[in-house]
């Protein structure tokens, strides 16, 4: 198992790589092959998407079906990147990038040369320079340091294993032991937090460069809030809990650490954006009950992206690409032109049943419901509530009442009324229930 | 139960959507059906022969729930009666509608019954006598709309059951039965 190289990479439901903590995507190219002649077991990796991140090179097969496969080469394993030779031959063949990696094999380390063949039209020179840049930046080492220094980060990110034991860490600082250790850790954390806050707000540029840390900070604060609510749940009053929850929600929506940008994805921009969006919408969709308006998602998505905002057109394009890739969400356009995002498992029947219950209540039987009544009860936007009501009407569940008082919906009694005998009321029908409700509440 | 004069209204008369023309096909068809029945019922019991669209018509509004039919809805319901042969527009502008709770054919049969019951097979009557004479008192012919009566009589004339002869004014249009 240890001999398996390159290792498989985890993917999200919509076929985007699951990023490690602090990992950021830098460049994406399509129609890329990975080749290695020296390893017999090296799989056939033809014309996929290659994503260069600060930590890894991820290769994803470019198939639209659900069985996406992916492998990842950690940059930490790269020993050497060969600079490409400029020759006449190289002008006509596809650009290639060769690099040497070492990997564990049979107890020892083996090294091999891997070639990236770029067949697509992407800007390979940018890719190569980013590759160099990230390889030299050694972002994974920062992670290791963070882990050693010690917040309780349990993520086994990167190919790290800081095996140093004893009271001293590799840098020689005192390791955190016992209560004093916890206090020291706390103190250190606050100092760091204070420092990064001060630095961040010096000017906008600084903020931009600190964006990643801010996201991490936000995440940490959220965790802290979460744990403190748990431990003091008995003592805190409702107000505090509510405000804490609010802050949590806030912090929760802060961050997509590695937004897909035109710069990083190039020609694959919309496709990758589409996949990232599909991953992103799942949480708000769950909260909204399976359907959410495109406008709401536009706001949430851009807030999560922070600085790399996308245009409404990009969002629509990304949504419309969902049809072509296998994702659990879809774009839906109502007859009125209102557009929503809904999960594929979402069913109109469920909403229909809820509306039916809503209009069967005694008050609603007598006075009907308006779109805003439905919005309040169903917990959705009025525009969407109206769409649901209109759908229910078209299915014969509801019928409308237009009067100077407004536009209201009632449960549809027409099918239950006998047109042969206008006065006939069958027992145990909604019509009978309605008559009871109306006569009971009649003021006169 | 709510009443309109001595006319007993069905429960659904207080159902607000009953007064809004429904846009969904199935619902609308049922709504129109119910309105057709109610209009015919009401006109039959109240002996109403003509509904003027621009005049107040008690059935077309409900003060209890403060709803009334729009002009469009009135036209839709009456047009449905017209296409069923249970009503006729009296003018091209669709402002007055003749309600036929009995079809002309049925009215003609009623007249024949009336003639036979009263032994008038070979007699002569004026049109006005049929509408308000002693013989017609208590029958459906009492107070019948003149237009409807004339149409029924003309149909009978074509079948050779009677002859209409004109006097100097409408009042003395005479009918010679020959049943």
Automatic annotation (TrEMBL), chain A:
Keyword entries, A-Z: Coiled coil, Cytoplasm, Endosome, Protein transport, Transport
Positions of region (Disordered): 142-169
Segments of skewed composition (Low complexity): 150-169
GO terms of molecular function: phosphatidylinositol-3-phosphate binding; ubiquitin binding
Species this protein is from: Cucurbita maxima
Protein name: Vacuolar protein-sorting-associated protein 36
Role played: Component of the ESCRT-II complex (endosomal sorting complex required for transport II), which is required for multivesicular body (MVB) formation and sorting of endosomal cargo proteins into MVBs.
Pfam families named in the record: EAP30, Vps36_ESCRT-II
Main location group: cytoplasm
Subcellular location: Cytoplasm; Endosome
Binding partners and assembly: Component of the endosomal sorting complex required for transport II (ESCRT-II).
Domain GLUE N-terminal as annotated: residue spans: 9-147
Annotated Gene Ontology cellular component terms: ESCRT II complex; late endosome membrane
Biological processes, Gene Ontology terms: protein transport to vacuole involved in ubiquitin-dependent protein catabolic process via the multivesicular body sorting pathway
Entry-linked SUPFAM superfamilies: PH domain-like (SSF50729), Winged helix' DNA-binding domain (SSF46785)
Family under the similarity heading: Belongs to the VPS36 family.
InterPro entries: GLUE_dom, PH-like_dom_sf, Snf8/Vps36, Vps36, WH-like_DNA-bd_sf, WH_DNA-bd_sf
Automatic annotation (TrEMBL), chain B:
GO biological process: macroautophagy; protein transport to vacuole involved in ubiquitin-dependent protein catabolic process via the multivesicular body sorting pathway
UniProt keyword Phosphoprotein, yes or no: no
InterPro entries for this protein: ESCRT-II_cplx_Vps25-sub, ESCRT-II_cplx_Vps25-sub_N, WH-like_DNA-bd_sf, WH_DNA-bd_sf
GO annotations of cellular component type: ESCRT II complex
Keywords noted in UniProt: Protein transport, Transport
Any one GO MF annotation of this record: structural molecule activity
Record-linked Pfam families: ESCRT-II
Highest taxon above the source species: Eukaryota
Family: Belongs to the VPS25 family.
Protein name, per record: ESCRT-II complex subunit VPS25
Lineage: Eukaryota, Viridiplantae, Streptophyta, Embryophyta, Tracheophyta
Name of the encoding gene: VPS25
């Amino acid at each position: 198992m240890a001999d398996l190289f390159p290792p498989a990479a985890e993917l999200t439901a919509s076929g985007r790589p699951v990023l490690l903590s602090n990992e950021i995507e830098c460049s994406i190219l399509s129609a890329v092959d990975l080749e290695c002649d020296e390893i017999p077991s090296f799989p056939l990796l033809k014309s996929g998407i290659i994503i260069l991140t600060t930590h890894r090179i991820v290769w994803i097969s470019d198939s639209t079906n659900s069985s996406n496969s992916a492998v990842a080469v950690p940059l930490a394993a790269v020993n050497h990147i060969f600079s490409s030779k400029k020759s006449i031959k190289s002008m006509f063949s596809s650009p290639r990038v060769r690099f040497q990696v070492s990997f564990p094999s049979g107890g020892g380390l083996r090294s091999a040369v891997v070639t990236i063949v770029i067949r697509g039209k992407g800007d390979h020179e940018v890719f190569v320079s980013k590759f160099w840049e990230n390889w030299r930046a050694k972002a994974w080492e920062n992670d290791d340091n963070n882990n050693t220094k010690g917040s309780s980060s349990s993520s086994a990110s990167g190919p790290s294993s800081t095996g140093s034991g004893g009271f001293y860490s590799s840098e020689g600082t005192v390791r955190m032991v016992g209560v004093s250790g916890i206090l020291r850790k706390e103190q250190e954390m606050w100092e760091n937090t204070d420092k990064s806050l001060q630095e961040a707000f010096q000017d906008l540029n600084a903020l931009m460069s600190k964006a990643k840390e801010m996201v991490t900070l936000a995440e940490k604060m959220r965790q802290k809030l979460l744990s403190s609510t748990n431990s003091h749940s008995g003592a805190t009053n409702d107000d505090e809990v509510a405000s804490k929850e609010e802050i949590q929600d806030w912090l929760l929506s802060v961050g997509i650490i590695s937004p897909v940008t035109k710069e990083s994805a190039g020609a694959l921009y919309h496709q990758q954006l589409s996949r990232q969006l599909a991953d992103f919408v799942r949480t708000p969709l769950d909260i909204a009950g399976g359907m959410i308006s495109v406008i709401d998602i536009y706001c949430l998505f851009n807030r999560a992206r922070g600085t790399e905002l996308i245009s409404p057109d990009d969002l629509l394009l990304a949504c419309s690409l969902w049809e072509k890739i296998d994702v659990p969400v879809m774009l839906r356009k109502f007859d009125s032109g209102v557009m929503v995002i809904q999960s594929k498992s979402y069913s109109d029947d469920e909403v229909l049943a809820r509306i039916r219950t809503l209009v069967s209540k005694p008050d609603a039987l007598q006075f009907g419901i308006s779109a805003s009544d439905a919005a309040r009860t169903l917990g959705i936007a009025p525009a969407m509530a109206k769409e649901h009501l209109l759908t229910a009407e078209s299915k014969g569940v509801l019928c409308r009442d237009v009067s100077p008082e407004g536009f209201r919906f009632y449960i549809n009694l027409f099918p239950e009324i006998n047109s042969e005998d206008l006065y006939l009321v069958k027992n145990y029908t909604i019509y009978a229930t309605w008559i009871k409700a109306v006569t009971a509440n009649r003021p006169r | 139960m709510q009443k309109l004069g001595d006319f007993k209204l069905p429960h659904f008369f207080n159902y607000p959507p009953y007064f809004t023309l429904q846009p969904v096909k199935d619902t609308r068809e049922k709504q129109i059906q119910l309105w057709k029945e109610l209009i015919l019922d009401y006109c039959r019991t109240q002996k109403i022969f003509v509904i003027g669209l621009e005049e107040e018509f008690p059935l077309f509004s409900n003060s209890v729930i403060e709803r009334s039919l729009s002009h469009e809805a009135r036209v839709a319901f009456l047009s449905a009666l017209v296409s069923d042969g249970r009503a006729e527009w009296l003018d091209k502008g669709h402002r007055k509608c003749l309600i036929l709770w009995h079809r002309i054919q049925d009215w003609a049969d009623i007249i024949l019954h009336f003639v036979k019951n009263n032994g008038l097979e070979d007699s002569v009557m004026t049109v006005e006598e049929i509408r308000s004479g002693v013989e017609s008192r208590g029958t459906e012919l009492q107070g019948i709309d003149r237009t409807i009566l004339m149409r029924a009589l003309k149909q009978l004339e074509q079948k050779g059951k009677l002859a209409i002869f004109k006097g100097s004014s409408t009042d003395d249009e005479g009918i010679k039965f020959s049943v």
